Amino acid sequence: MAGLKLKHVYKVYNGGVRAVNDFNLDIKDKSFVVLVGPSGCGKSTTLRMIAGLESITSGQLYIDNALVNDVESKNRDIAMVFQSYALYPHMTVYQNMGFSLKLRHEKPDVIKEKVLKAAETLEISDLLDRKPKELSGGQRQRVALGRAIVREPNVFLLDEPLSNLDAKLRVQMRTEITKLHEKLQTTFIYVTHDQTEAMTMGDVIVVMNKGFVQQADAPVTLFEDPTNLFVATFLGSPQMNIIECDLVEKDDKVGVRLEGVESNVVWLKDNTAKQIKNSGISFEKKYLFGIRPDHVSVSKTGIPAHVEAVEQLGDETIIYTTIEGHKQHVVLKAPLTIDINSQDDIHIEFSKEKVYLFDKDSEHSLIGMPSYNKVPCSIKDNKLVIGKQELELDTDYTSHLLARVKDEPIFLAVKPEHVEMESNEANVELKAKVEFVEERTNYNIIYASMDGVTPYLIFRSDKNRKFKSGDNISVYLPLDKMYLFNKDDDSLFSREEIFENKANCHVTNKNGKTTIKINGGDTLVYDDLGVEDGDYEFILKQEGTQVVFDKKNAKGIEEEVCKVATPNQFLKVSCYDEEPQHKINTIFVKIKGFEEYVTLVINNNFSVYKMPVFKINITPDNFELRKL
Ligand code: ADP
Q1: Separation of CA 192 and ligand 1 centre (Å)
Q2: Staple 626 to which of 38, 89, 523, 537, CB 3.0 to 4.6 Å?
Q3: What is the pLDDT of residues 554-594, one digit of tens each?
Q4: Which residues sit opposite 600 in a β-bridge?
Q5: Cα separation of 485 and 490, whole Å?
Q6: Residue 19 near ligand 1, beta carbon < 6 Å
Q7: What's the pLDDT at 564?
Q8: How far is the CA of 576 from the centre of ligand 1 (A)?
Q9: In what order do the strands lie in the sheet with 613-617?
Q10: Of the residues 10, 23, 45, which should be mutated to test ligand 1's pocket, given the most ligand atoms within 8 Å of the CB?
C-alpha cells in the first residue's frame, strides 16, 4: 500500500513534444485516482512515468515518500494492466497468472496459493486450465487483472483496461474493478478517455487537456464547480449548454443577456450578482453562459425554443431545441411523462441557482468557486501588501521571486482549497469578513471581503464549520502555495530557488579592449568598458540576454529570440530546467564559473528541451561588475 506524490512533473519527448506540463498531485494511500481527458492529452505518458516505463524530464515522483525518479520499473512495486491484455497465448490462465511469481523464483506452492486466491477474487477459478484464445474479452481482461493481483503490488496502474470490451461488458467490468479496489485496499491509478467511466469509478478525477491538468478533485466537485469551460463541457451527459452572452446591470441586479434572445434576460441570484460586481469584470465584453440540461425546464413563458428532436430514455426524456441566434442545440432533460414532440414550439427557462459563466478568452469560470483567487497586491520591503494588510515574507519565500517583481501591479494567486483555517509555521494570516456562504455537496464555499481589496477571497470550508455573513475571521495562506503573477499572467514566483547569477571574474584592459575572464569559465571581450583592471563579481541580469542559434536550431523559432553570436561575447550554457509561462520562459541553466545554476527570463518561443546546450549572447547591458 502506498501514497504517491507528483511534484512539478514534466515530460518532453525527444523532438520537443511537451506531453505533460507541471503535473502536481498528492495521491492518498488506497485511493482510486482516474486520469481522464481526450486522446493525446498526456494520460498514458503520466501513467508510464509513474510505472517507470518512461523517464521524467523534470520534477519529482515520490512513492511512499521515497523519491523514485531513478528507481527502475521492476523495483517500484507496482503492477500495470494494459488495454491489450498482453497475455501469453501458449500458456494457460494459471500459467499466465503465475508467470511473474515464477520469474521471481517463488516456490510452486506459494504460486499456487496466490493464483488460486486471485482467481477466486476475480471469479475465474473454473478457467484456470484454458488458453487465452478460449476466453471472452471480459475473461481475458480478468486474467490480466489477476496477473497484476498475484504480485501484491503497492500500486495498480490501469491504462484503458476496458476499451477493448463491448459496451455492456464495460459497464459490468467497471463495477468489478471498483469492487476489486475495495477488496484489495490498494492505490489504483486508472486512465480512461471515457468521462462516465471516470465519474463512476474514481474518488479523485484528474481532468487533463493538452498536457495540462485542468482540475483534480472529487467527481461531484468537478461537476458542481468546474474550474473552466473545458472541465464543464467534458463532464456531464448530455454536455453543458454553452451560449454566448453579455452582462447587464440594473440596480443591484446582474443579468445575463443571451445572444439572439436579448429580450429575455436571465437575472442571476443576489450572491452571484454580488460576486460578479465585486470581481471587477467588464460589462462591455462578451461571455459564455453555461447551463446543464438538468437545469433547463419547459415553461409557460420564457425563451421561445423550437423542438428539433425528442429522445425517450429509460427514465427521462432528452429534448433538443434551437433558440434564436444560437447555432448549437439547447438541450434539456425532462421527466418521461412530458408531452412534447419534435417540431413543437415551446418556451424554456433556466434555473438561476445553477448557472455558469466563463471568460471567452481564458475560459476560466467566473462564478462560484474560481480556480484561483487573484488578489491585487504589491511588494514593499520584503512585505506583501494586500489592501490594508501587510504580510511578512520569510526568505524561504522571497528566494523564489524573480527579479522581475518591480513596482508594477501584481497579483497573488491562491487556490480556494489552499486557504487554511489554522495557523502554523508555514502560513501567513489574513483578516477577512464573511460576506456570504454557499453550500455544496462536499464543502461550503465562503466568500469573504478584505479591507481595501476588490475581489472576494473565496475558499472552501468543512460543512461542519458554521460561518455566517458578517463574521470576522482569520484565514491562513500557506507560503508554498502562494504564487505571484504580473498583469500578463506570467509567474513572478518560481518553483526553483533563485540565486543571484554570480561568478567571480578578472578584468584586464589593453589596446582599448576590456577582457573579462570568468574564473573557471568563458572569456568576454568588449570595447573599453571604463572599468579598472582587477577582480570583480560578474552579475548576470535575469532579463535581456538572448539565445544564440545556428540556422538549424532556429527553425520555427521567432527572430526576436535569435541572435547571431558576436565572437567573444557569449557564454556557453547547458540546460538544467525551465518553467514556461504565457509570454516568458524562465530557464535554469548551468554556466561554467557560476556558483549556482543561473536563472534567465527569456521569450517563451524557446524551450531548453529543444536545444539542451546552447550559447547566450552577452552585451554590456546584460551584466554588472562589482569590485571585490
Ligand atoms: P493520451 O494517453 O492522453 O492519449 P499520450 O500520453 O499517449 O496521451 O500522449 C501525449 C502526447 O505525447 C501526444 O501528443 C503524443 O503524440 C505524444 N507522445 C506519446 N508518446 C510519444 C513518444 N514516444 N515520442 C514522442 N511523442 C509522444
Answers
A1: 14
A2: 537
A3: 555 555 555 666 789 999 999 888 888 888 889 999 999 99
A4: 587
A5: 5
A6: yes
A7: 65
A8: 23
A9: 562-563, 546-548, 613-617, 570-580, 584-591, 598-603
A10: 45
Residue linked to cell 444560437: 326
Please tell me if the CB atom of residue 53 comes closer than 6 angstroms to any atom of ligand 1.
Answer: no
Q: Please tell me the distance from the alpha carbon of residue 504 to that of residue 535, in angstroms, as a whole number.
A: 7
CA nearest ligand 1 atom 5, residue? 42
3-state helix, strand, coil in the chain (%, to 5): 20, 40, 40
- Kindly provide the b/e burial profile for residues 166-193, where b requires at least 16 CB atoms within 10 angstroms of the residue's own CB: eeebbeebbebbbebbeebebbbbbbbb
**How far does the centroid of ligand 1 lie from the alpha carbon of residue 442, in Å?**
34
What distance in Å separates the CA atoms of residue 163 and residue 160, rounded to the nearest whole number? 6
Q: Of 429, 517, 406, 526, which is closest to residue 476 (Cα–Cα)?
A: 429
Nearest to 524, CA basis, from 537, 515, 533: 515
Q: Is the CB of 20 under 6 A from ligand 1?
A: no
Q: How many angstroms separate the alpha carbon of residue 12 from the centre of ligand 1?
A: 10
Please state, in angstroms and as integers, the Cα–Cα distance from residue 538 to each residue in 2, 232, 523, 541, following that order: 48, 51, 12, 10
Q: pLDDT tens, 216-240?
A: 999 999 999 999 999 999 999 999 9
Please say whether the beta carbons of 321 and 332 come within 8 A.
yes
Amino acid 612: pLDDT: 79
Beta bridge partners of 546: 617
Ligand 1 centroid to residue 510 C-alpha, Å: 56
What's 88's DSSP letter? -
Cell 496466490 found at: 114
Q: Are 447 and 416 in contact (CB under 8 A)?
A: no
Distance of alpha carbon 345 from alpha carbon 347, whole angstroms: 7
Query: From ligand 1's centre to the CA of 209, what distance in Å?
Result: 12
